[in-house]
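Sample intake — WD repeat-containing protein 75 second beta-propeller domain-containing protein
Collected from: Eruca vesicaria subsp. sativa
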Amino acid sequence: MIRGGSSYVASAPSFSNDAKKLLVCTGNTVSVFSVATGLKITSLEGHTAPVTTLIVVPASTAAQKILCYCWTASLDGTIRHWDFSGPELLKTIDAHVPIYSMVIPSLLSEPHLTDSTKLVAYVSVEDASLVKEGSKELRGHIRRFNLAKERLPRGDTLKETEEPKSIVISPSGEFFGILHKCKIHVWDTVTSGGSIRNAVSKKMTLHHTKVINAFAFHPTERIIAAGDVTGRVLIWRGFGNRKLALGSQKKNVRSVVDLDNPGVRDGDDAESSTTWHWHSAEVNVLNFSSDGEYLYTGGREGVLVVWKLDTGKKKFLPRIGSPLLYFMWSPDPTLSSVVCADNQIHLLKMPSMEILRTISGIKPPPSLPKMYEGLASTVAFDRSSGVAALCTENYCVQLYNLLNDRGISEVQVCERNHQPGDEITVVVTAVALSLDGSVMSTTEVKLAEDGIGGLVSLKFWVSEPDNKTFTLSTIVYEPHKDAGVSAIAFHPTRSMAVSTSFGGDFKIWVCNGSDKDSSSWTCHAVGSYKKKPMTAAAFSGDGTVLAVAAEKVITLWNPGKNILLSVLGATLTPITKLCFAGKSEFLVAASHVPKPQLSVWNTSKLSLSWSYELRIEAVTSAVDSSAFAVLALIPETFKKSKSKKNIFSGRDGAILLFNGSDPKPVSIWTVIKGEGGSISFLEGEDDKSQLRLAYVNGSHEYVVFHPNSDETHERCAEGLTGDEETAGDFGYTSLYGKLPDYDKKRLECVESLATPFVSSERPWETIFSGSTLNFPPLQKLCGEFFESLMEKRTAVVE
């Protein structure tokens, strides 16, 4: 089983002491990446909830740079000490409450201190044990813990807040602080003649007129830099000379603090306050250089700004392409990292700020206008290589290897310069991959402004099978006149594709030329059915039949000759998805609200095999068998049922695996974040017949597993997939009710067809009445019909 797609940007990363490794919080684990290659080396596994804090124990001497120790804190309420070179868990401390942030000052102020039993940590926790339900009591607590014990007591509480806050510590370990709306609360960790372990922290507060987003401490001087929601950067100099000064230092600074302090508000304990303004939106990133000469800031506009602290002059690293979240220095002064909101970490060469390489996770899904929710097809799969093509923000398609959990390349479908607060003007509504993964097709819609403009584009991209760097081959503007494209599907064996539109037609496209550089796609045929909107399409496993959904009916076509072969009966609501069950005769159709339906049709008999009232998010089928799987959303009535609460706890979807025409699922897995999710079968690494199933949820987290392996049954409840449900009182029957006896019904149907047809006096009035699905064969109907019209001659016995 393979899991991936975790966020790399939920917490700040940290470099190892030799600057050769980068440690990143990835959900419940910590992933260790190589700085030289950007690939994952190992991971620290043990926490049972997201890791919120990661602290690498700094080296006090050059010889200690080979040491690889770190501390982690998690929402599972534990603090853990690791050797990440192994990796090996050295110690676990239970705090009993979720930990949102943690700092250990003595690691910075006393780096020679290696005895973990003498360390003191300041943590930000959430303690709701004394809070009554619905009350507005303070849940966030800043507490002081002694790490000598494995089970921590309540600890000393320094401050209570409405919710847990992130703690920021100075590079010297002398101060730490938190943000609270328009204020910065700062504590010291050292008292005269004492040590950090026995210190009684003093507190001071700095005020501002706007909400503050981030702040940072100067490495050597008493300077604090902060950024607010309007894009301003504030610099407080000489903070804490009265309230946080030590002994003789108080006497030396009295003459200074009695003077007028320019820019300082509300009598704050600071010598001066300066404001800089370049950012057009909120500032999220602040960090000083190691020598304190420069200040690095960043925000929503995706630009890293470098300020000269004494002059205010600045230079820029522009067009990073996503809002910035963190900027971290490494022990090597020529290396730093910047963390972006699109789940990417860029490694920078300093001081030129050149991007050396990027550690890329799956980018988050795009924000779609409400009119496209549930209709856009934003994930496609290359079954042979295990690569997924995912639509992301900034009009991109990201190619991501699900088996190795790393990004491969990106395709910029439509050019865009990232600007904060930009309205969505273009929507990538669909992406599809050919069976061998060498061709990709995308559709985009340029939204009309005040009813003026608007443009639909269909694009074909080509690449070599071993190289997932796609280049644009063909672009078709307005492929279906003014109508939008509802679906794209590729032929399984030929260079052919079909696009359907809400305007009432579908078009078959073929590739002219075998050379990648000179090939182009042209329209081969156009089809329609009673001017009904064409909402979905799929090729059969051998490519001889094309199924196109004409709103509520399914039309079957010969794709080569563009001839209508047959029409299947109507569904309750418009069909949104079609999929042939491998190379079998079964066709799977899914309809959405207001009456969702999953139906399976027999194309050889032109009849409905079975159906369920389920809302289906995705459908996939095996290539060489009749197995198929669907991703269904669990109805609210089932989730609210007391008898099924344990099955559906925190889960909103289910993957159902079927085999051909059998309406009883082979397996069921409950999943989280099913809405907007996708599924696909992937070929096995060694044996292609050993299929794997990939599930990508609505947040682009994913799991790849073998549907029939024992590992799936044992581990599916730990992550995205839930326990397998089998038939019985606690499985499929409890979820969907008892199934009718289909074998008995089939037997009754066969017996009824075998019964001789008895004609009535007026047979033409009843012989053709009833559902077309229940008609006897045409040969039997015609014979009995004509026989009923003829007068039978009675035999004469002599």
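Post-analysis note: The chain is about 5% helix and 40% strand.
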